[in-house]
Model the fold of this input.
Amino acid sequence: MVLRVKFTSTAEPISHDVIRQMVMRAATVAAQAFTDVEQAPEGRLRTLMDSHGEVIAARGPAHPLSFESFLAMLTGDLAGLLPDGVSPEEMTGVHLINDDGLFEEDLFDLDQEQRQVAWAVQKATRDGRSTSISEIEQEMDQVTVNSGLRKRGTQEAYTKGRSNLSRFPTGTEAVIRRLNLPSMVSQFYRPISFAALYEQWWFACPVCHWPMKITRHRSRTAVTGRAQCFYRPHAELMGASYTFKVPAAGRPPTLIPGSPPPAFTGEASVLAPDLRGSVPKPMPAAGHLALARGPWRYTTVPGLLEIALYDALLARGFVAASEPGKSPAALGADADCPGSVTLWPYLDAYDLHVDVWLRDGQTKSFLLDIKDFTSEMLLAKKIQADGGDSGGAEWIVVPDHRQASLPLLRGVCKEFPVQVATAGEIGQTICRTAGIRWA
Ligand SMILES: [Zn+2]
Done:
């Protein structure tokens, strides 16, 4: 079967994309207000009315929508808010509010991803007309973080700063200060967010170490608490999901792990985190800081995989290089060394550069960019808008848990000089080329 997906060509008007973005943004804000019981009712109502106005503007005069219908649709399928004739695409089947009456976390990802696509389209078409899209760039915290890190200019400083954002998405004020990050970056370390607090305590995700979301669930007989990573794959596939009994007043809760998720096997097993036996302990909110959500989601989370892949190759005998293309002699490598690996080469043009030194004296290079999009549809659009990879990578690598997105992405990548693989597959391919074992 040939997979055909219709995408908006960069040469055509992007109005349906813009309608989806406007509806998405307004509905996200509305769903947050709708479910945020801590906020005063007047403030919530004002936000809901403003969001309703924006959805009406996006739908246009031919598709009116009453405030009552708008509220009713907030708890249903997000696609229902779009006017007839606009395909829901990445919004298909997305709910704003989940069965527990809580704001759906994936919306944050879809919203950010839509903005990344809009930005890529904007760059591709070199169309300076839309001011809203140039503003997007300024809004994107992770772009600010990256340019802040690049300002220091050296590869070593960039790599150290960037990996610290993955290793320390939270920490005490003293620990964060010692990271010595540029102020443009350190400004994104803020007090622990309300959504991650149980009274004055918080719990770090065992995978990414960012504060987990705390919710309370009321049944007929009892109230139970839940702690889950805000990044859905950590919660659902890697075990960052716990329950707790409401403790006595003034005491912190004790987390109880859920049933363990199925283990990753084969080539995907290498990079899977091993969390057996580690249950997060309560941490005091006072004196602790955490990265803002954008930089955590788009720098810390994918960075964990970039670093894991880099470390796995070093563990298999590759040598670290500050830049690609150095000879074994220049790096002081042994005769049996399989090659060199550079993390975030050329100040992050792409994520990993691997040189495999073949027996005949030739070098086979792998230029990897890791892409962790919640919506495969939006990632496919971004690849199209970028004409492959914007930084010149030859492989787009997705996390092992996103293997199901490969057929769609491979279909899109056919027209560009770029291939797609999961992280486990690319590790396997690199090691096979070098004649060594991956898994
Ligand atoms: Zn996590």
Observations:
- The first strand starts at residue 170 and ends at 172.
- The chain is about 40% helix and 15% strand.
- The mean pLDDT is 87.
